[in-house]
Amino acid sequence: MSNFFIPKWPVPSNIKSMQTVRVEGKSKGKYNSFNLATHVNDDINDVDFNRALLNQHLPSAPCWLSQTHSADVVELPSPLLNADASFTKDKNIVCVVQTADCLPLLITNNDGTIVAAIHAGWRGLLNGVIENTLHKMNLPAHEILIWLGPAISQNHFEVGSEVKDSFCEKHDEAKKAFKSISKQKWLADIYMLAKIRLHAYGVSQIYGASVTEDYCTFAHHKDYFSYRRDGETGRMASLIWIA
């Protein structure tokens, strides 16, 4: 099995994208085996080895972000990489986000002139990381294509009432993305929450995880890292660039 797969979505031929999985790498133990994160206490030599393997399939080294579950966005190239989304109009600059349950989104347009990658945990999603990115990309909504990558599915994503209430205060439609399991606990559908934001922005070309359990990071231990499942673990990467 390869340590990545190519997303299936109808993008222009010059748009290249990739989603890594956790196999065929050098990391050991909890990080077994294709961990790409340097901040999770894995052996840095193993991470460097894995990143070098990844770089063999890329036009340049990815622009790794320092992700903090924010709604911050940077345009690449940039010396400032404290953000949870990046975009670029330049060729051969690789936008990348790391996840292990949070939702990765890859973005381009019909003409293939701009790309972006978003890390959307519930905090970033709530605070507008998707909207901030689309606003900075400055594209007509009907020209935007979105790919939703592997993330935790609703069956495994337990949150408190404060999370549900915060989303529902911003979009009444968000109520349908939560399933009650007790008075104060809910199961959240992060895919639906993202789609509500995208539809509100006017985006309709959305691809990727249609059956969320198929891409569920929590349920598929062999393929994906999951922070909710394992605590200390590695990270996958979602990448996109203009060739």
Automatic annotation (TrEMBL):
UniProt cross-references to InterPro entries, sorted A to Z: Cu_polyphenol_OxRdtase, Cu_polyphenol_OxRdtase_sf, Cytotoxic_necrot_fac-like_cat
CDD domains: YfiH (cd16833)
Keywords from the named record: Hydrolase, Metal-binding, Transferase, Zinc
Keyword Nucleus: no
GO molecular function: copper ion binding; hydrolase activity; S-methyl-5-thioadenosine phosphorylase activity
Pfam family name, one: Cu-oxidase_4
Record SUPFAM superfamilies: CNF1/YfiH-like putative cysteine hydrolases
Family: Belongs to the purine nucleoside phosphorylase YfiH/LACC1 family.
UniProt xrefs under NCBIfam families: peptidoglycan editing factor PgeF
The protein's name: Purine nucleoside phosphorylase
Source organism (scientific name): Candidatus Methylopumilus rimovensis
